[in-house]
Specification:
It is built from 16 helices and 14 strands. By secondary structure, it is an alpha+beta fold. The chain has a single domain, classed as Cytochrome P450 (Cytochrome p450, Orthogonal Bundle). α7 crosses α8 and α8 packs antiparallel against α9. The chain binds protoporphyrin IX containing FE.
Length: 400
């Protein structure tokens, strides 16, 4: 039986064959759920896109995770923006929208380049490293710390906590997920005190000084926004980089094509890596009324889950969808979602990815994966937990 809640289903990345089977035989598949009512799994591009946009019929409340929140996951009336519907969500999104536009993101580009260069400096002489921990994970941790006005070191620790939060409950020690959320909140409370005493030119200070619905943000709302930014911007970008480099190593012809003109070809390559690796596996919605999708009759209150990685391999939208084609154009993937919740950080994410890949690929050569990569035990976020690589320093006599 197909079970999209079993971490083993995603143990080696996106299950391309299984997605193909679902799209062909049961594009609106009823997946059972231990201790829950079950959910509808969508695997076709058009269905995912339509549901993501129709927030009147498919609500992001009470949560976008398949499991409903227990009492420990509730914060009174406060909610994360990701789990609100417009117009409330629009009001919260507006608070930081200007910080994430293409031009605001590009203004950070020089800084991103310097961070990428510092990160690669630390590993380049070793000629071997864990690409996920030593390179891919460093970038989003540093960037989030920079954005929020925290010491870079703290960004790293907060990112470690997000990994625990995203892991399947059975894959971490009992209670570890809850403890990680508490640690994150405790940190945010200290940050509020710090930024009130010493305001800075950063998103934390901006959020603390902003108003929503005609009143200042409450501490809980600040905490939830903070958690969302760290959570959404951390392991997504890291996983793209980890699975992206792995995909390059597994497709040497494509890798060679990219290296033929790294600067010119990187933008198209990065979009294809986003499509091919789709770091966010799913987002859930809840039906607000009875509605039909394909042959399925969805009842009010039913969970409807959009599988982005499956949509991104729909042959009705992509030629040879299971092939990595770095020159693919057009490439209208939905790795960043769509509709009102479309990834707020997508422009920044693209620049982070480009900064790391161009630094890594212009300074390392003969990159090879050592052993089998270990995959994250998650049904929500896809990427290798670790990826050991060996490489040479580009420009050295023994360069390959
Ligand atoms: C490769 C990297 C990334 C991927 C694949 C990704 C993917 C996504 C996806 C799929 C969504 C949900 C969209 C939907 O429901 O339709 C989302 C939302 C979001 N992302 Fe990203 N993301 C990435 C990086 C980032 C970064 C770097 C940031 C910020 C620093 C960020 C901030 C957010 C926020 C705040 C939301 C919620 C938006 C809302 O609820 O209105 N993301 N992202």
């Amino acid at each position: 039986m197909i079970d999209l809640l079993d971490a083993a289903t995603f143990a080696n990345g996106h299950p391309a064959q299984l997605y193909a089977q679902l799209r062909a035989e049961a594009p609106v598949y009823r997946n059972p759920e231990r201790g829950g009512p079950g959910f509808w799994a969508l695997t076709r591009y058009d269905d995912v896109r339509a549901v993501d946009r129709d927030f009147h019929t498919f609500s992001s409340e009470p949560t976008i995770m398949i499991a409903d929140p227990g009492p420990e996951g509730m914060f009174g009336d406060a909610q994360m923006m990701l789990m609100m519907d417009p117009p409330r969500q629009t009001a919260f999104r507006k608070l930081l929208r200007a910080e994430f536009t293409t031009s605001a993101s590009e203004a950070r580009n020089g800084r991103l380049g310097r961070l990428a260069s510092e990160i690669v400096d630390k590993v380049i002489d070793r000629e071997e490293c864990d690409f996920v921990a030593d390179v891919a994970g460093e970038m989003p941790s540093y960037v989030i710390a920079d954005l929020m006005g925290l010491p870079l070191e703290d960004g790293r620790e907060l990112y470690r906590l997000t990994e625990t939060i995203h892991s399947a409950p059975e894959a971490v020690a009992p209670g570890a997920g809850g403890e990680a959320v508490s640690a994150m909140f405790a940190y945010a409370m200290r940050l509020i005190a710090e930024k009130r005493a010493r305001p800075g030119d950063d998103l934390s200070t901006k959020l603390l000084n902003s108003e929503v619905e005609g009143r200042p943000l409450t501490e809980t709302e600040f905490l939830l926004y903070f958690l969302l930014l760290i959570d959404a911007g951390g392991d997504t970008t890291r996983n793209l980089l980890g699975s992206g480099l792995l995909a390059l190593c597994r497709h040497p012809d494509q890798f060679a094509w990219l290296m033929g003109d790294l600067t010119q070809r990187l933008p198209a390559a990065r979009e294809e890596l986003l499509r091919f690796t789709s770091p966010v596996i799913y987002m859930r919605r809840t039906a607000t009324r009875d509605v039909g999708i394909a042959d399925a009759e969805i009842a009010e209150g039913d969970k409807v889950v959009m599988y982005f990685g499956a949509a991104n391999r729909d042959p009705d939208h992509f030629d040879r969808p299971d092939e990595l084609d770095l020159s693919r154009s057009p490439n209208e993937h939905i790795a960043f979602g769509g509709g009102p919740h479309v990834c707020l950080g997508q422009h920044l994410a693209r620049l982070e990815i480009d900064a790391v890949l161009s630094e890594v690929l212009s300074r390392m050569s003969a990159i090879e994966v050592v052993g089998e990569p270990e995959w994250l035990p998650s049904t929500f976020i896809s990427g290798p937990r670790s990826l050991r690589i060996r490489f040479r320093v580009r420009g050295n006599a023994q360069e390959g």
